[in-house]
Amino acid sequence: MSAPNPINNWQRKVQSIGILMIDVSHYLALLLIGCVVIGAAGAEFFSIIQGGKVDLKDILMLFIYLELLAMIGIYFKTHRLPVQFLIYIAITALSRHLVVDVQAVSDTFHLWLLLTITISIFILSIAVFLLTWTASQYGRPEDNIHKHNQNKSPTKLSE
Q1: Looking at the 3D structure of the chain, how many domains does it have?
Q2: Does residue 22 lie within any of the structural domains?
């Protein structure tokens, strides 16, 4: 048997340190983003309470904050960023824009903007359906990773 190559051992150590640094930076960034989202949601909630009334635009904004927090939570649990949640956030943001901002637009531009936003929401809804359907038919990439890791089970003690 030959002695272990010190260069390969050094490369593995550097690579493991690099992976650790990237993981730590991801977690720190997610914690900061989560704190900012919680702070923004709290400020929105307190402005609703101070205003004394709740509008649909306020509720939709709180749903956007909730979806952002759910997406961050899913990343912490699974180490995956679900595309469906990004699409849900986009649909909610477009719905909020449709309800709140389109009313302030001039009449001639109003119809085209209304039509464009509605078609965008429809296309995003189709995308969510297709992502969900293909995942149920063919699986998700992370399903293959879990199967691959299960096949690499530790050696049996009896061997």
Answers
A1: 1
A2: yes
Read off the pLDDT of residues 34-92 as tens digits, 9 standing for 90 and up: 999 999 999 999 999 999 888 888 888 898 999 899 888 888 888 777 788 889 989 98
115 within a domain of the structure (yes/no): yes
The verdict on pTM exceeding 0.70 is no
Per-residue tokens: 159:
């061997």
The reply to whether 158 falls in a domain is no
Number of H helices, E strands in the chain: 5, 0
- Note whether residue 152 is domain-resident: no
pLDDT digits (tens, 9 = 90+) for 89-111: 899 899 888 887 766 666 666 77
Range of the domain at 130: 7-139
b/e 108-134 (16+ beta carbons within 10 angstroms → b): eeeeeeeeebeeebeebeeebeeeeee
Task: For residue 130, give both structure tokens.
Answer: 């297709």
